[in-house]
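Figure 3 (text version): structure tokens given as input.
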């Protein structure tokens, strides 16, 4: 199978509630990149990547030029488009780095491969091992009482894991109240963790962490470096999830060695797609770090791609997944699976199981043919 045509669209996604994080990072309306690959066997594969401004070394307008630059690899008429990992190795040799721009390419190639096999993607990644994946709900950094109200509302909808965004107002007392009020508002079995998205100093994260250390809570990526995160974990005794600092095998091993990675966010755009993330998934299973399998932001294509990998992972390795498509509008494929209570399950149709309507995506920003 060869790739015969590539089309890329940029679609603005608007959050239902503006999503505030530390250091002024905000998702209000952000642009997602939607990739369609057509094959000479008549199939269509879809991929998506949606960087959040200022969040990671990634930006929405970097995707089109990187894909254009990789055209000689994508359109190599050697029939190798079904060997996704081989093609992604060739892409890495042609253009180093740029993981986020490669992620939708890898995703769309897996969609084509699974459709060619006539199987849902999770069947190729290890089979359906976790049929119902727990979802966490991420609460924008707001007034503590409002965050507690949202936590209770989500609990009533079936959510059992809550991420509390911290640090948007650089106010330790408010962050302590956010953790306490949310913890009080949900059942004792609910997992609650506070995410600073790198925005806290060692000192502030340690002070806030120690002030809530009597509670059953976790912390997520308080500081910008693994060393500072490890120091906060040591000083507070609170379990920790690493997110921004974990993006490849080396960083996973380093976080593990430093002892601060009780859990980790595996995001397709950090690792460069599902191929690399499947390898990271296997490493995390081996070392015993619980996984959050997701991407930065996005809609139905990203959600389904990450849900397929999650579903093909043993339950013991999974902390949660993210139903990103329910945070934003428009949906790219309103018929794609979405949350049911506090869980989500993968599509059972061949491939990713998403079919966006190209007529709803506006004018393409890039069109290439073999
Ligand atoms: C990547 N986010 C900003 C969006 C997801 O919902 C979770 C969150 C994070 O940093 O963990
Ligand atoms: Mg995070």
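Below: residues designed for each position.
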């Amino acid at each position: 199978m060869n790739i015969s045509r590539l089309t890329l669209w940029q679609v603005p996604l608007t959050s239902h509630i503006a999503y505030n994080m530390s250091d002024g990072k905000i998702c209000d309306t952000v642009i997602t990149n939607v990739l369609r690959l057509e094959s000479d066997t008549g199939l269509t594969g879809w991929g998506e990547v949606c960087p959040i401004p200022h969040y990671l070394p990634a930006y929405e307008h970097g995707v089109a030029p990187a894909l254009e630059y990789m055209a000689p690899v994508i359109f190599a008429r050697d029939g190798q488009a079904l060997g996704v990992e081989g093609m992604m190795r060739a892409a890495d040799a042609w253009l180093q780095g740029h993981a986020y721009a490669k992620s939708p390419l890898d995703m769309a190639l897996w969609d084509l491969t699974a459709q060619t096999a006539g199987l849902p993607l999770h069947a190729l990644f290890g089979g359906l091992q976790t049929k119902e994946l727990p979802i966490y709900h991420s609460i924008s950094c707001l007034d503590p009482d409002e965050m507690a109200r949202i936590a209770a509302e989500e609990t009533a909808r079936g959510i059992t894991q809550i991420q509390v965004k911290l640090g948007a107002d650089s106010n330790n007392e408010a962050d302590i109240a956010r953790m306490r009020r949310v913890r009080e508002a949900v059942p004792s079995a609910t997992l609650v963790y506070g995410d600073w998205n790198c925005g806290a100093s060692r000192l502030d994260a340690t002070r806030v962490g120690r002030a809530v250390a009597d509670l059953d809570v976790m912390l997520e990526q308080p500081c910008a470096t693994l060393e500072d995160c490890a120091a906060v974990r040591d000083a507070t005794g609170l379990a920790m999830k690493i997110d921004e600092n974990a993006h490849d095998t080396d960083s996973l091993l380093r976080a593990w060695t430093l002892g601060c990675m009780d859990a980790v966010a595996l995001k397709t755009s950090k690792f460069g797609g599902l191929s690399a993330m499947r390898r990271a998934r296997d490493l995390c299973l081996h070392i015993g770090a619980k996984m959050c399998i997701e991407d930065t932001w996005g809609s139905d294509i990203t959600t389904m791609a990450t849900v397929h990998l999650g579903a093909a992972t043993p339950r013991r390795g999974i902390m949660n997944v993210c139903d990103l498509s329910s945070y934003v509008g428009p949906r790219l494929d309103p018929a794609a699976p979405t949350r049911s209570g506090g869980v989500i399950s993968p599509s059972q149709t061949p491939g990713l199981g998403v079919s966006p309507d190209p007529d709803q995506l506006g004018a393409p920003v890039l069109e290439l043919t073999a």
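Residues 99-117 form the longest helix (19 residues).
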